[in-house]
Q: What sequence folds into this?
C-alpha cells in the first residue's frame, strides 16, 4: 500500500519478476480495482559481464571439448565440469582445477550440490553417478540399473528429502539412488521411440519431478525415433510418499524440438527449459523457454530468452 499526494496521485514502486514471464499487478482503491499485465524484457548486453574465462583456461591447459554441467556446492564456489575433471571458480572469477582422488571423472555432465558442500555428478563417458565429497574424494554411487550397465548418464536432481535421481537417456531411464542399498532403487522407463530419453530434471516446491527428454538416435547411435523426429518433451511425475516408486507420467509440453536439455525452477515456481530445434540434420536454434508456474494467469510458453549463455 502507499499514500497519494493531495492531488490524489502517487507513484508506487514495482519490481518485475524474471523476464520474460508475465507479471500481473492488481491495484485497488475502496471498491475500485484495476489489473495491469506487464512482461519484462532484458536489453541486449545487459547481463553480459565477464566472469571467469573458462575457455581461455582450457586453451592454456591444452584441454579439448566444451563445458556443460555446473553447480554451486556452497555459497562462494561455482563448479564446472570439464573433460577429465572439475573446475572451481571463486566469487572473483578465479579458476583452479579441483584436486580429486579416488575414481576418475571422465566426462561430467549434470551436477548438483549434495547440501553438505559436496557434489553429485553424472559422468556420461564414465557410465556412472559419482559423488565428490568436500575433500575431493570421488566414489561411484550407481553404475548399473536393472542388472545392465548405464549407457550415458546425463542429468542429476535432488528432491526435498535429499534423495538423488539420475537420468540415462540412452536407456530411457530415470533411476533413484538407494542410499541404504548403495545402488539403484526405483526406476522409471520411457519409450524412447515415442518420447525420447530423459535428460535434465528438477523438483518443484510440491516434490513433483519435472524432466525433459531428447531424441537419442544421434547421441546414442541407435535407431529409436528417427534422426530428425522432434520427440523432445517436458514431463512431470509424482513419486510415492516413501519414494519407492514413480507415479503416472504426464506430458506437459512438446514444443517440436529435437533435444530437451537443462531444466530449472526459479523461486516463483516458473520452469526454465533449454531446447534445441533442427532443420534436416542440422541444429537450427538453441533457446531457453519459460513455462510459468501453476496458477499463473498466462499459462503456456511465453517465448525464448534473447541471449543464450553456455
A:
Amino acid at each position: 500500500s502507499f499514500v497519494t499526494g493531495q492531488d490524489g496521485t502517487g507513484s508506487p514502486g514495482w519490481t518485475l519478476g524474471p523476464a520474460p514471464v508475465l507479471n500481473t499487478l492488481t491495484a485497488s482503491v475502496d471498491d475500485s480495482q484495476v489489473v495491469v499485465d506487464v512482461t519484462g524484457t532484458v536489453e541486449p548486453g545487459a547481463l553480459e559481464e565477464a566472469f571467469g574465462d573458462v575457455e581461455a583456461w582450457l586453451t592454456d591447459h591444452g584441454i579439448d571439448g566444451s563445458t556443460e554441467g555446473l553447480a554451486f556446492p556452497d555459497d562462494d564456489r561455482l563448479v564446472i565440469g570439464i573433460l577429465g575433471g572439475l573446475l572451481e571458480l571463486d566469487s572473483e572469477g578465479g579458476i583452479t582445477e579441483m584436486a580429486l582422488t579416488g575414481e576418475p571423472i571422465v566426462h561430467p555432465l549434470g551436477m548438483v550440490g549434495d547440501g553438505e558442500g559436496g557434489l553429485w555428478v553424472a559422468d556420461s563417458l564414465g557410465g556412472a553417478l559419482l559423488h565428490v565429497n568436500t575433500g575431493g574424494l570421488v566414489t561411484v554411487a550407481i553404475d548399473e540399473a536393472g542388472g545392465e550397465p548405464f549407457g550415458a548418464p546425463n542429468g542429476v536432481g535432488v528432491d526435498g528429502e535429499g534423495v538423488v535421481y539420475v537420468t540415462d537417456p540412452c536407456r530411457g531411464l530415470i533411476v533413484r539412488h538407494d542410499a541404504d542399498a548403495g545402488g539403484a532403487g526405483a526406476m522409471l522407463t520411457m519409450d524412447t521411440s515415442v518420447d525420447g530419453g530423459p535428460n535434465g530434471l528438477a523438483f518443484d516446491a510440491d516434490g513433483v519431478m519435472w524432466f525433459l527428454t531428447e531424441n537419442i538416435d544421434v547421441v546414442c547411435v541407435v535407431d529409436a525415433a528417427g534422426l530428425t523426429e522432434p520427440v523432445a518433451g517436458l514431463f512431470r511425475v509424482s513419486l510415492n510418499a516413501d519414494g519407492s516408486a514413480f507415479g503416472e507420467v504426464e506430458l506437459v509440453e512438446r514444443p517440436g524440438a529435437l533435444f530437451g536439455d537443462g531444466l530449472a525452477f526459479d523461486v516463483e515456481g516458473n520452469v526454465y527449459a533449454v531446447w534445441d530445434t533442427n532443420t534436416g540434420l542440422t541444429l537450427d536454434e538453441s533457446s531457453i523457454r519459460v513455462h510459468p508456474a501453476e496458477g499463473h494467469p498466462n499459462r503456456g510458453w511465453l517465448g525464448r530468452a534473447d541471449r543464450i549463455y553456455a
Notes: Helices lie at 54-60, 192-195.
